[in-house]
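DATA CLASS: polypeptide
GOAL: derive structure tokens

***
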Amino acid sequence: MPQYLIRQAKAVFGYEFPQDIRIKDGVIAAIAPTLNREPDDELIDASHCVVYPGFVNTHHHLAQSILKGIPAGLNQGLGEWLASVPYRFWPQITPDLMYVAAKLGLYEQLRSGVTTCADHHYLYHASTSPELEDAVWRAAEDLGIRLILCRGGATVQGSHKGMRDSGIVPESLDLSLDRLEASYKRYHDDSPFSMRRLVVAPTSLVHTSPAEDLRRYAQWAKERKLLRHSHLLEVSFDEQMAQQNFGMSAIDYAAHCDWLGDDVWFAHLVQADAHAIELLAQTKTRIAHCPTSNCRLGSGIAPILAMEKAGIPITLGVDGSASSENASMLQELNLAWLLHRTQGGPAATNVAQVLKWGTQNGAELLGLKTGQIAEGYAADLVLYSLDTPRFSGVHSPLEAPILCGEPALIKHSFVNGKRVVENGQVLGVDEAELIQDVKAAVVELLAKSPAN
């Protein structure tokens, strides 16, 4: 494995002064104001760069990378949008189309500074081919990004509008667990520097699996020490259906089904009230905050500041590109920094705070030894070039990428010490070929899918 010496970075997150960083055997072997060059070092000139830990995206839907800007869903809320966009198209997504979608989504993330992607992959039904999931793992391996596959799915149509309106036949619980077991044995690695992890992640806690199935999922995950993930309280419909169908609030239903705890995190939680926040904090349950998608669908603003004050660790996710039209974590951090100031004032958020949400907190949630720039941690590092017109007038170099947001130029990016981006280019990806493949995938998908 190559050994690198990153020389004299303009700024390094977590350090007051410029630092040298040595990458050796996939980890940060040394960090100091000055390091002597070793014979095996490949020099990386970082004098015009700011160095961040790689972003940890804790909620995504890679399959949606080929579903951007679907006209029928542009002005719809979540429930109607689910039927018009993802659930209209995903039964027609083949393994080949899934590979193209995953490759595009992972490419976009690498271009924005992501080194770990937790993909909530829910394209499972009664007759799903295992090759569909394999395509996601393969795309991540080909691009060299760390993948946490959150294995979704539904065991009933329930009150989920997308499934109900699309006529999708769900898996049985036994079939779902059998498929989970196969993926667990083939892919899961629980080491602190793992490139592949499996998470148990029924698609919607309230809508797509009955309580007894959710408890079985929880038991199965705990027996294997796997994390758990799902959607909850993205919109008020979750609360309405929980009250109507179960006679209790959505958060109490989660507790009733054994779906709260330090091994659980939920995407969105936009409609979390004071009782939900208290229960989440007591149980150490965490959140993937997805502000871009929540804005795009008009779902609202999650009460992140109240959650953090209550002791809930905040993480960030880009959600699917069908409800954000991009997969940029840099945009997500920029929006998170800005959005909550509209409610809490100019001191409500700061760059160091949101950068921790997007790096350290996500890594700690996933049990990975990354998300920090420190000796012994995985060398998941991103060097943003400040030598561009956009950043040239910024007086705070360390904060420039988040303050200015996209577009940004990544000079170098490393995952487990392996360089994956150089001079803005994702290594191993022919951009012209990727564009051609994506356009062909969209044409094929439109030809197969029912009219909206």
The chain has a mean pLDDT of 95. The two ends are 50 Å apart (CA to CA).
